[in-house]
């Protein structure tokens, strides 16, 4: 238990569906992240929120839309996804000022797009 | 650009020592980290090196040579539970930079 929770743990959706992933951190951190993990690929940083402000968007397609209402909650809204978007989506948090910027990861959401 | 290279797979036997290497190319280097991820689990932090040298934490040690843009994770007295993927990650771009992860090394420990 890392102090970062994610729901749902598994999600199957069609290409025309709209769904949202939720992440909550109980660590008092000031930064939250969405990563995508696909087979045979490195962890890909998608979005970064620092003090609720989005500071990074790594050329992520607009069918992925993040939302950070406060420093403890992070959402990833999904719509009109493609089968190649099937992956493990990991949320993480960190205390940005610390030198290590240690990432505390949630268990992830295994997403399958049909 | 920024990139990290590490072997894709390593196999070792229980009780042995294994070294997982990582070479990196980045601008504004701000430290090398290592994470462990078991199958079906989330990555968890193992170690961090900002300065050259060896950092030891129990059976695990991590080494950094900034002049060679190289580091390694050393696992001693291997146990079956050490079977996992190990990722190196660099933080670039200064104190507000984000982590860039390598592709990971899958370690299989055999009895």
* Sheet with most strands of chain A: 7 strands, mixed
Biggest sheet of chain B: strands, sense, closure?
A: 6 strands, mixed
Q: Which spans of chain B have pLDDT < 50 for at least 5 consecutive residues?
A: none
**SSE string of chain B, helix = H, strand = E?**
EEEEEEEEEEE
Number of helices of chain A: 0
The structural class of chain B is: mainly beta
* Assembly form of the protein: heterodimer
**Overall pLDDT of chain A:** 91
Biggest interface, chains and residue tallies:
A-B, 25 and 24 residues
Strand proportion of chain A: over 45%
Give me the secondary-structure category of chain A: mainly beta
How would you describe this structure to a colleague?
The complex is a heterodimer of chains A (about 110) and B (about 110). Chain A has about 110 residues and is an all-beta fold. Chain A has no helices and 11 strands. In chain A, a hairpin with a 6-residue loop joins strand 4 and strand 5. The mean pLDDT of chain A is about 90. The mean pLDDT of chain B is about 95. In chain B, strand 6 and strand 7 form a beta hairpin. In chain B, the strands form 2 sheets. In chain B, strands 2, 4, 5, 9, 10 and 11 form a 6-stranded mixed β-sheet that branches. In chain B, strands 1-3-8-7-6 form a 5-stranded antiparallel β-sheet, with no helix packed on it. Chains A and B meet through strand 5 and strand 10 of A and strand 4, strand 5 and strand 10 of B.
What's the gist of this structure?
The complex is a heterodimer of chains A (114) and B (111). Chain A has 114 residues and is mainly beta. In chain A, 0% of the residues lie in helices and 56% in strands.
Topology:
The complex is a heterodimer of chains A (114) and B (111).
Chain A: E1 4-7, E2 10-13, E3 18-25, E4 31-37, E5 44-50, E6 53-57, E7 64-70, E8 73-79, E9 87-94, E10 104-105, E11 109-113
Parallel strand pairs in A: 2-11
Antiparallel strand pairs in A: 1-3, 3-8, 4-5, 4-9, 5-6, 7-8, 9-10, 9-11
Chain B: E1 3-5, E2 9-13, E3 18-25, E4 29-37, E5 44-49, E6 53-57, E7 60-65, E8 70-75, E9 84-92, E10 99-101, E11 105-110
Parallel strand pairs in B: 2-11
Antiparallel strand pairs in B: 1-3, 3-8, 4-5, 4-9, 6-7, 7-8, 9-10, 9-11
